[in-house]
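Q: How would the structure tokens look for this protein?
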Amino acid sequence: MTDAAAPGQYYLSRVQAELPRVLTLVDRDPSSPTYGCFDRNYWHYRTQDFPSGMYQELALPLAQAVALEWPGNRFYGEPRLRELALAGIDFAARSAHADGSCDDYFPYERALGATAFAAAAHAEALRLLGDRDPARVAYLRRRCDWLLGSEESGQLTNHHALVALAAARTGAWLDDAGLLERARAPVERCLAWQHEEGWFPEYEGADPAYQTLTLSFLAEVAELLPSSELDAALDRALAFCVHFLHPDGAYAGETGSRNNAQVLPSGFERLAGRSAEARTLADGWLAGAEEGKAAHPDDDRIFSHWMQDFPAAARARRERGDTGPEPFVAEASDTVFPAAGLQVIRRGEWTLTVATGKGGVVRAHRGSRLVVNDTGLVARAGKERFVMHQVDPACRTEREGDALVLRGVFHRAPRHLATPLRQVAFRGLNATIGRAAPGLLRRLLQGLLITGKKPAPLRFERRIDWGGDELVIEDRIDATGAEGRGLDGLWASTDATSIYVATSNLWQEASLEPWVRLDDAAETLRRDGHATIRRTFR
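A: Here is the predicted structure in token form.
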């Protein structure tokens, strides 16, 4: 590749632009006890009392910059970056627990996701750098052994796909047939979890954006461990994903179970040579990204994911060229995924993506123009927040001609923020219960921040009507108690989330849609106990 307009150059230009940021995050002082640490909050600001192991994934983008030549890559062959990439791996080994695991959000956590992200990155970094230092080899083996023998609470398929990738990369790099074979177990777990609709579960259901992570990890595993069963699962996954590429080139969003719009595109690119759906996703998402439609998973904790994925996507795109099947073309009809609680409705110029399992969260386009991104009503009563958009299997959906009618309840959505006293108490838990039973503490936190549901004293009926020349969203809300009639704020929201997910609340162009304050409806609800809000979009 020598041409700035070469296939996949968008991917590489994005990586190139962020490499100075990576080099700012890392402790570059070889005399420092934290040499190679990428968690700047720990080693530089000193506002955190332990290093998060997730940040050490950033060793791989440095190794890629050293080892891979691409237009504008002024770091190619740079000894200093090689040194810092290896220092990052060494710090990960020093800061890990004796069993090879690492922490992410709190001490003694032994986080499967962070451990796997770093292990997969370090195996690839060492391969690219041609480094087989015995201590680094021992560290990776120890980490893979822990990953392959560990469980975690909740179903996060992307984590187990990543465990498979870490073990497969390490086994292939070391020419260890036994470790490669052991990588099949987490693959089989992922395949067993895949729903017949094509999606892999992420906590409470289907999240099309997290599916791109699972797809990217498993697509690479399929190259290292060929399997007809895995190929078939990837095809089913693509057949699901292709419906969540929006007409403007954006992908997924708040309609998913985890409110995520992050995309790792290397899976699309790897499979585009044989799959019409993959080619459509790869070409469509990239075109949208070049036009500014992609979400921005760009904070210091999570930008490492796409930083290491984009060079792989660029390579796959370059290798496939313009070959492959004709792009997938969706029929002008309804595509319904009942178990996922998702529907995609195509009627004339209209394309609607509706989360029927989340109270009717909807993203609507007319042609390629975004008309509305609606995440339901958000109400406030004093310090309490009530929302329509949480995953709720009890939400009921009916089809009435060219309209969907959804009925359900609001849920409480507290914001749990740290305070000095809470932090002291939490660190006490970390050092006692958490140290002895990290899985138990993780389950408690998941229930508090993610999966726990508490109904609020408000019911809703939402009608989404696309039958005419305009889209109409009509919401009726009914108070079921005095607290529900005591609202001091009511909004029609456009990018609301209320569960903790690291990759939610990303900036995306859809976030330009403003929230609408509904003071008149709030007053009517206080007076009458019910209110109706009708909004029209063209």
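The domain at 9-320 is CATH 1.50.10.10 (Glycosyltransferase).

DSSP finds 17 helices and 16 strands in the chain.

Upvote if useful.
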